[in-house]
Design brief:
The protein has 111 residues and is mainly alpha-helical. Helices cover 37% and strands 7% of the residues. Strands 1-2 form a two-stranded antiparallel ribbon. A hairpin with a 5-residue loop joins strand 1 and strand 2 (53-56). Helix 1 (7-24) crosses helix 3.
Length: 111
């Protein structure tokens, strides 16, 4: 598991990664994800005096505020920072035809 960077600077970095991927069309949100889309629209990024960004999500009725967005941001950060073959699995000769496999699956990073 890849921990996201801490503090306000880390939060800005992870949220801006998702924003950039969405704008570039490298990350798409499914049409049936209305609650996630609604939460994404409430995210506010404000410049701070030190040149950074403050990321916030206003509380909504019921006290919820961006739980799906937070999950998305952390999942994207983890995917971006996970090697594409971690670890690679090389089966023994004569097992399943040999060659190089990717263990139980592979992930494609954004980098």
């Amino acid at each position: 598991i890849n921990e996201a960077p801490g503090g306000q600077e880390g939060k800005s970095e992870t949220y801006m990664l998702v924003r950039d991927l969405l704008r570039e069309g490298r990350l798409r949100i499914p049409e049936n994800a209305g609650r996630l889309v609604a939460q994404l629209r409430t995210i506010i990024a404000r410049p701070t005096p030190g040149g950074g960004l403050s990321i916030s999500a206003p509380r909504r009725k019921g006290g919820r505020h961006g739980d799906l967005v937070s999950a998305l941001v952390l999942a994207v950060w983890s995917a971006k920072n996970t090697p594409t073959c971690s670890p690679c699995y090389i089966p023994p000769k004569g097992f399943g035809g040999g060659g190089i496999g990717h263990g139980f699956g592979s992930s494609r990073g954004f980098g």
